[in-house]
């Protein structure tokens, strides 16, 4: 219950703060001032073959602004538009239409955009006051300001007066010689590219040179061509003002978009790596929504920069909010009927994303209809996300964490608010941009929280494992000590009476004259000797605790040299040549005493039972293991006798001992293997050891 209250308070506070922030940003953030439309009349040369002079009423026939309205930073909201043809740069025509850029408008597939900035009206009554207001823009004998033209879809040629100042992409069948004398090339096919263009306007400050003609104005003529889809012409307002202010605001927006894009990309990479390393789908929702935020910000950055695929990036930016919603809706466990929630609810969001993606590629009317459908889907999904967050708060099984629920509520509020808020430029004044940044930051917090919880869990696990290892080690040592005591008792205390019995049997055999009785007594003595031998081996086994011995890096050639030196006297006494061919620096990871015991046992076995003339130690290696070979030229071992089992020998499996069986266990305790091959005149024992 306490956890549910904590989650509820956190989610409620997040919802209230995010709503308040969005409202405050929208209503209180400074807005780029609108440059008022000029009035009066203007004389211009028409775009006809004989260039006739005509007069237009500013505000009715054409739209223009005057420099006396300039501020440090302002925007022009209206443009002169001529559809389906290209007007000669620096001129006007009688079929101009005035378009308000703050409202949706269907531009033709190609056409001309004309922006006009007029010099001061020399006949104005407050001319001197207007001159004084322009003092921040005065440079020498000119007033200087910067005009920033936003991206034009999808290819454009931009003229200032009659001078070609910029080309973005290529217009189909466009001959520059018809519009400028600086170039004579012809572009044959449409090549898309968009970019903003900055240019400087200069206006002469002397009153005598000012006229009510177009020649004293700065005229920007834009010839454009698009793919004929919903996005044609221009959809943003140009900026005008001081050079630092105009260029700074665009660069600042691009830098902020790029910075937050990198943050979102880092979060995506962290969650993707966590999902891969842990082989879990638990982090898929965070992975999806962080990547969606990344592509949303990156697409906005790309559209604001130079790009050869403007419509694609616009489509991606439309799709991304639905991808964020889809990732958020994947975060909830539970079922709707028989279907899991995480599979049902993301589907409408994905469907909305697909419809939003195709909007830039369809005609204007279809795009407007799709916009309405997408808005409905987004609103429904945002409300569903809010409901699922509230449901998750009161789940008894804990479910979603507090930070995750706060992220999800922030996403829901931002998505719902985007239905009512227009896109705001620049980015730092856009509440939706900050909502994306806050979501990426909260995701970073959840990563740090997850890392802290993982480290704490690992710390507890390490401590608990250490205690458990210590307890189990203590128990194992107690079991081994008890086993050793028992084996010592069996081998020592039980061997004594058998040794005495063996001596008495020798006396009885010497005194007995009945052949049958002597034979029976000899069999009893043989069996008694076998038991005594086994008890001796058990005693040696108990005395040498190979399980407790730690493994270490050992030079195999040095160890074999020491073992052979110890057994040379025994071999010489029995007429056997002992050869050590193990040379070089061969490091193996073994239990040193255990390996010495096993090698010695195999050599002694060959001395006592193989009836051989020579015993040879050699070595070979592969990529991971070193193989020690102990071979003899004796009688060999019967093919049906596995002498590595207990109580089996080469000549009589009923009278065998424990020696080689113990050797096998010793070798296996150091992650090695003991095997053998045998035929008449050649038996080879192979001890496979780990390389160090």
Would you kindly provide a written description of the structure presented here, covering whatever features stand out?
- There is one protein chain.
- The protein is α+β, with helices and mostly antiparallel strands and 692 residues long.
- Helix content is 48%, strand content 19%.
- It has 15 helices and 26 strands.
- The strands form seven sheets. Strands 4, 6, 7, 8, 11, 12 and 16 form a seven-stranded mixed β-sheet that branches. Strands 1, 5, 9, 10, 15 and 17 form a six-stranded mixed β-sheet that branches. Strands 21-23-24-26-25 form a five-stranded mixed β-sheet.
- A hairpin with a 7-residue loop joins strand 2 and strand 3 (53-58).
- The longest helix has 63 residues, at 431-493.
- The two termini are 57 Å apart.
- 36% of the residues are buried.
Features:
6-stranded mixed β-sheet, 15 helices, 7-stranded mixed β-sheet, alpha+beta, about 700 residues
Mean pLDDT: 85
Q: What's the overall geometry?
A: elongated
Class per helix and strand makeup: alpha+beta
Name the helicity range.
40-55%
- For the record, give the distance between the C-alpha atoms at the N and C termini, rounded to a whole number: 57 Å
Strand count, sense and barrel status of the largest sheet are:
7 strands, mixed
Poorly predicted ranges: none
User: How big is the Rg?
Assistant: 46 Å
| Estimated share of beta-strand residues | 15-25%
Helix count equals 15
Number of strands: 26
């Amino acid at each position: 219950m306490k956890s549910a209250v904590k989650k509820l308070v956190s989610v409620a506070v997040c919802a209230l703060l995010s709503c308040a922030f969005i409202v405050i940003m929208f209503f209180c953030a400074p807005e780029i001032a609108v440059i008022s439309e000029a009035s009066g009349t203007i004389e211009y040369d028409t775009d006809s073959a004989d260039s006739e002079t005509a007069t237009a009423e500013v505000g009715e026939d054409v739209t223009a602004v005057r420099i006396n309205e300039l501020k440090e930073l302002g925007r022009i909201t209206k443009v002169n538009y001529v559809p389906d043809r290209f007007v000669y740069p620096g001129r006007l025509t009688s079929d101009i239409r005035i378009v308000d850029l703050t409202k949706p408008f269907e531009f033709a597939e190609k056409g001309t955009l004309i922006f006009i900035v007029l010099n001061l009206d020399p006949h104005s009554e407050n001319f001197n006051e207007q001159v004084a207001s322009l003092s921040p823009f005065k440079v020498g004998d000119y007033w200087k300001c910067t005009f920033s033209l936003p991206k034009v879809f999808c290819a454009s040629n931009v003229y200032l007066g009659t001078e070609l100042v910029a080309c973005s992409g290529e217009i189909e069948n466009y001959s520059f010689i018809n519009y400028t004398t600086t170039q004579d090339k012809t572009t044959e096919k449409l090549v898309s590219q968009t970019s903003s263009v900055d240019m400087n306007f200069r206006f002469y400050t002397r009153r005598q040179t000012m006229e009510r003609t177009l020649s004293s104005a700065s005229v920007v003529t834009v010839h454009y061509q698009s793919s004929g889809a919903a996005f044609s012409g221009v959809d943003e307002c140009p900026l005008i003002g001081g050079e630092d202010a105009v260029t700074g605001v665009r660069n600042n927006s691009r830098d902020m978009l790029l910075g937050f894009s990198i943050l979102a990309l880092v979060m995506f990479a962290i969650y993707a790596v966590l999902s891969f390393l842990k082989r879990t789908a638990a982090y898929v929702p965070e992975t999806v929504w962080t990547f969606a935020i990344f592509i949303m910000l990156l697409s906005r950055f790309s559209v604001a920069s130079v790009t050869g695929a403007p419509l694609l990036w616009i489509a991606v930016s439309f799709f991304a909010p639905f991808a964020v919603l889809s990732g958020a809706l994947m975060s909830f466990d539970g079922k709707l009927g028989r279907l899991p929630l995480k599979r049902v609810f993301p589907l409408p969001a994905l469907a909305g994303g697909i419809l939003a993606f195709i909007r830039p590629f369809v005609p204007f009317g279809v795009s407007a209809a799709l916009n309405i459908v997408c808005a409905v889907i987004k609103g429904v999904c945002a409300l569903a996300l809010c409901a699922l967050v509230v449901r998750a708060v009161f789940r008894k099984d804990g479910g979603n964490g507090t930070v995750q629920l706060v992220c999800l509520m922030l996403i829901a509020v931002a998505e719902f608010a985007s239905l009512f808020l227009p896109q705001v430029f620049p980015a730092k004044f856009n509440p939706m941009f900050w909502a994306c940044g806050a979501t990426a930051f909260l995701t970073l917090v959840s990563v740090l929280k997850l890392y802290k919880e993982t480290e704490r869990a690992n710390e507890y696990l390490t401590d608990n494992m250490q205690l458990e290892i210590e307890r189990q080690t203590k128990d194992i040592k107690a079991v081994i000590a008890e086993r050793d005591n028992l084996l010592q008792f069996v081998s020592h205390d039980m061997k004594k009476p058998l040794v005495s019995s063996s001596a008495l049997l020798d006396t009885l055999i010497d005194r007995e004259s009945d052949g049958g009785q002597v034979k029976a007594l000899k069999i009893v003595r043989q069996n008694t000797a076998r038991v005594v031998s086994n008890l001796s081996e058990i005693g040696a086994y108990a005395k040498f605790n190979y399980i407790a011995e730690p493994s270490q890096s050992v030079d195999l050639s040095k160890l074999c040299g020491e073992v052979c030196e110890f057994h040379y006297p025994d071999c010489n006494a029995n007429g056997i040549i002992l050869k050590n061919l193990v040379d070089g620096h061969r490091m193996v990871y073994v239990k040193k005493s255990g390996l010495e015991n096993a090698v010695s046992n195999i050599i002694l076995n060959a001395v006592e039972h193989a009836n051989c003339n020579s015993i040879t130690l050699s070595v070979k290696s592969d990529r991971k293991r070193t193989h020690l070979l102990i071979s003899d030229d004796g009688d060999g071992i019967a093919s049906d006798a596995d002498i590595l089992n207990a109580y089996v020998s080469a000549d009589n499996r009923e009278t065998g001992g424990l020696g080689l069986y113990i050797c096998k266990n010793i070798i296996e305790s150091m992650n090695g293997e003991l095997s053998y091959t045998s035929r008449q005149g050649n038996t080879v024992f192979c001890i496979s050891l780990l390389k160090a």
